[in-house]
Amino acid sequence: MLMVMSANVAWAQAQKFPVKPIRIVTAEAGGGSDIVSRIIGQGLNAAWGKTVVVDNRGGGVVAGDIVARAPADGYTLLYYGSTLWLLPLIRKDVPYDTGKDFTPVVQAISTPAVLVVYPGVPAKSVQELIALAKAAPGKINYGSAALGTATHMSAELFKYMAGVNIVRVPYRGTGTALNDVFGGQIQMMFAVASSVAPHIKSGKLRGLAVTMAKPSPAFPDLPTIAASGVPGYESVTFSGLFAPARTPKAIVDQLNAEIRNVLMKPEARERLAGSGVDVVAGTPREFADNIARDISILGKVIRSAGIREE
Questions:
Q1: What's residue 24's pLDDT?
Q2: Edge-to-edge strands of the sheet including 76-80?
Q3: Which of 78, 155, 295, 304 could pair with 242 in a Cys bridge, judged by C-beta atoms 3.0 to 4.6 Å apart?
Q4: What is residue 259's predicted lDDT score, i.e. its pLDDT?
């Protein structure tokens, strides 16, 4: 009887949802997560006539903690990427459990990257770069943003699968790291495709390969890393929307359906394509499966490399 009553309450909540403003907690203003959150927020506002507030917070731990503690009613949501589920593997005392405290709603986008090197590096292919790194272990440096970010984990996966010893140089952001690749202070980087495309064209950077499993139409002259000496390599950053755990399935499904409608609209797709990302707009199950796969693969890399933030 109690289970039937609970199901009826959840169904009744979903029938009335939404009746008040919705809050999307995400990363700092101006970044990729902020941009996608605002596109989703504007679309939901237009569809439902309810205010959607984007709440910018620094760091995945802060944003995750807020939403993990929020009521499971669909009115407080989280938009984040891989740092949300990788930080617990890297940092002590993360105040949430990714698998227990969140319900995946929709994977919104995926973001490919490009392996670029300083033009003075004597390697014009991935195989030549691997040979160079193996001939001089620890002499080639790569730039990355914070631990667990795409620029970090793409390089560590490459290091793990190619069997090379390349050394991370940490930066506060990808812009400063790229500046040092331009100047030759560091030799290589895995960078978001849109941020390096003009610099590859101008010759300030040399693109060696893309990180996707299949060739990119945006870089027709570049092979994949997997086809260039590292079979099976794939590193594509993805992000999406979460609700607190125990949010009624009917509300999760309603959010998923409407957000997918928003993301598939031509104006949203064009705006996101201009930022160098691909719209995914998948199901909650697909999002959960991709997260589990990411944790499995990159968890091995993290343990093997001993990556920890103390």
A1: 98
A2: 52-56, 22-26, 76-80, 237-244, 102-111, 278-279
A3: 78
A4: 97
